[in-house]
Amino acid sequence: VQLVESGGGLVKPGGSLRLSCAASGFPFSTYTMNWVRQAPGKGLEWVSSISSNSVAIYYADSVKGRFTFSRDNAQNTLYLQMNSLRAEDTAVYYCTSAYGGYWGQGTLVTVSS
Amino acid sequence: DAVMTQSPLSLPVTLGQPASISCRSSQSLVRSDGNTYVSWFQQRPGQSPRRLIYKVSNRDSGVPDRFSGSGSGTDFTLKISRVEAEDVGVYYCMQGSQRPLTFGGGTKVEIK
Questions:
Q1: For B64-67, which contacts have Cβ atoms below 8 Å and span 24 or more sequence positions?
Q2: CA separation (Å) from A97 to A23, B24, B59, B102?
Q3: With an 8 Å Cβ cutoff, is B92 touching chain A?
Q4: Bridge partner residues of B6 (DSSP)
Q5: How confident is the model over A61-113, as pLDDT tens digits?
Q6: Contact A52/A29 with Cβ under 8 angstroms?
Q7: Residues with Cβ < 8 Å from A74, sequence gap 6 or more?
Q8: Do B94 and A105 touch (CB under 8 A)?
Q9: Closest alpha carbon to B24 in B82, B93, B112, B108
Q10: Residue pLDDT, tens place only, B25-54
């Protein structure tokens, strides 16, 4: 099983980033998937979930209206479009399977001027 | 939202001795399907979290049997029967019974 995140980096407040997560080694198209983030030195925070067929998508209140979670089951890939970024969005972003059985290595997003 | 409160925040343990971490939910975590979706994660320094326990008491593949989970309703516990040096890290509980998923604040396990 592998989950490989990419797309993180340094962005100015108000800017945008698109994270990707490439999955392999398990039946990706049948799994609900999540994004979970961890601010520097802090705990884990759920960000968003997407059902296997993309019918149900949920967001934390802190990102609702700014982040968009999507998936491409043909490409075994997740996407997190992050707009209107704020300093408090600075964190390592992990893609995970539904109940946390699989985690990626994370990608660091830094929002700073 | 189901708030998950972990204790203690820090747990210094002597090698070979047991350790216990508590996680209390603000709401019952028994889902309508009868299952209770509480998991425990270990995060070693500089690494991604790794799940140890799912659905309260089921060990994930490859997890040493010195780790065990128990509990019901709103109170859950992770026990390490004999702490080893490789167990150093931060441990988190998580509930998946209700939306949104919520995590405990973490317990840092260190060797005395």
A1: B67/B40
A2: 10, 24, 17, 15
A3: yes
A4: B23
A5: 999 999 999 999 999 999 999 999 999 999 999 999 988 999 999 999 999 99
A6: yes
A7: none
A8: no
A9: B93
A10: 999 999 999 999 999 999 999 999 999 999
Of residues B73, B88, B86, the one with CA closest to residue B38: B73
Mutate to test the interface with B, among A1, A46, A105, A107 (most CBs of B within 10 A): A46
Residue A85, amino acid: L
**Using a CB-CB distance cutoff of 8 angstroms, which residues of chain B are in contact with residue A105?**
48
Chain A interface, Cβ < 8 Å to B: 34, 36, 43-46, 49, 58, 60, 94, 98-101, 103-106
The pair of structure tokens assigned to B55 is: 């659905």
